[in-house]
Amino acid sequence: MIRECTWQLRCVAGAALLVLVAGCAGAIVDDPAPRLNGPDEIRAALHGDDFRLKSTAREQLGTLPAEQQVALLGDLLAAKDPQTRLLAVAELSRFTEDVYRPLLGPVAAGDPDLEVREFAAAVLGDLAD
Q1: If you average pLDDT over residues 38-42, what whole number do you get?
Q2: 38-124 adopts what CATH topology?
Q3: Percent of the chain predicted with pLDDT > 90
């Protein structure tokens, strides 16, 4: 009798968990990505910790004129957290070498984080294969 109750309790708990997860997933899918207006909001979102907002900001970065994108990404290279600097290096690598080389040269030579330095050096082609 106790075993049957335990099995039934597990089934009910599993079903409740499934409903909870499905409900959360639906809320995430139904919730549209926020719209960021202008470079200041994009910059703030790229500096932030909210992954979804940061991802939206990264997508909307491409809607800015190239000069604004480069200026914003150059600012992000001075961010405190290495993940933001890595993101800036990755985004700058989409531009031509004459655009990213002056910005990434100092990063490859002197960023406090080894991973950021190595990534910038790789983009510049300064790492031996």
Answers
A1: 91
A2: Leucine-rich Repeat Variant (1.25.10)
A3: 64
